Amino acid sequence: MRAFEAFGRWQTECLASSVEFSATGPENALLHIIRMNDRPKTIHDLANMTNRVDVPNIQYSLRKLKQAGLIESSGSGRSGVTYAVSDLGRKVTDRFADVRSELLVAAVSHVSGLDKGLQGSTRTLELMTGIYEQAARTAATHRRKPGAE
């Protein structure tokens, strides 16, 4: 939990150094995922890539990013809307990458064996994610009826 919160603070502060916009860590992540591979994403893509099911919260974040001028939407209908970074969003994510390289990458480059350790940690986290997802599906089959004891 501490690492997650620290990462969220890092994302918030790094983005704030790039644009006058107050965003949460997950909103910042959405911005960068939308930019990823420079191709538009649907809300389904974004939910899938972030392993989130809270579509209304994702929609709220997308509205904030759009109002800030960082993303644009096109298309219509439930599944026809796609999101892409705007010119401002591209500049901001480029600046974010520069600040990240300057501060974070430089700081961790001196940690011996970090790459190897992170690779192992990544594999473990991916395994645990799969285990939690399966356990959540199984737990959902054990739900009690409302009011039942």
UniProtKB/TrEMBL annotation:
Classification via SUPFAM superfamilies: Winged helix' DNA-binding domain (SSF46785)
Gene source species: Stappia taiwanensis
Any Pfam family: HTH_27
Domain HTH marR-type: 24-79
Keywords, sorted A to Z: DNA-binding
Domain of life, per lineage: Bacteria
Protein name: Winged helix DNA-binding protein
Gene Ontology MF, one: DNA-binding transcription factor activity
